[in-house]
């Protein structure tokens, strides 16, 4: 796989056409999962926007979000949370969100 060295010393993986492999998650869904409670518990940030802005990512649209190089985000996640990469933190945020939704409706686990 081809790589591109960034100004921060990270290597971004490239698609066959030379474009940087970015994040392809739904931004609205990610905003729902990354609640302030999750962010405070698992990062030093209070919200997703602060997390992204501190990394230098200005995200206001889905397209902005998809332009974030996955390898750069993986490095940022690893430096600023207990998780190894973007996929792992998204899964944890989803689990956290689901658990809280179940608690809110007083769902009892079997």
Draw up the topology in text:
Blueprint: E1 3-5, E2 11-13, H1 27-33, H2 36-42, H3 48-54, H4 62-66, H5 70-80, H6 86-104
Antiparallel strand pairs: 1-2
Short description:
The protein is 51% helix and 5% strand. It has helices at residues 27-33, 36-42, 48-54, 62-66, 70-80, 86-104, and strands at 3-5, 11-13. The longest helix is centred in the last third of the chain and has 19 residues, at 86-104.
Structure commentary:
- It is a single chain.
- By secondary structure, this protein is mostly helical.
- It is 51% helix and 5% strand.
- It has helices at residues 27-33, 36-42, 48-54, 62-66, 70-80, 86-104; strands at residues 3-5, 11-13.
- The protein has a two-stranded antiparallel ribbon with strand order 1-2.
- A hairpin with a 5-residue loop joins strand 1 (3-5) and strand 2.
- It is globular and about 40 Å long.
- Residues 1-12 have low confidence and may be disordered.
Question: What attributes characterize this protein structure?
Answer:
110 residues, mainly alpha, 6 helices, 51% helix, disordered N terminus
């Amino acid at each position: 796989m081809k790589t591109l060295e960034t100004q921060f010393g990270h290597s971004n993986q490239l698609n066959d056409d030379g474009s940087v492999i970015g994040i392809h998650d739904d931004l609205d869904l990610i905003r729902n999962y990354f609640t302030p409670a999750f962010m405070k518990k698992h990062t030093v940030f209070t919200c997703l926007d602060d997390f992204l802005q501190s990394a230098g990512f200005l995200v206001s649209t889905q397209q902005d979000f998809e332009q974030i190089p996955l390898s750069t985000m993986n490095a940022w996640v690893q430096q600023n949370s207990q998780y190894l990469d973007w996929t792992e933190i998204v899964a944890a945020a989803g689990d956290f969100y689901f658990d809280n939704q179940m608690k809110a409706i007083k769902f009892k686990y079997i």
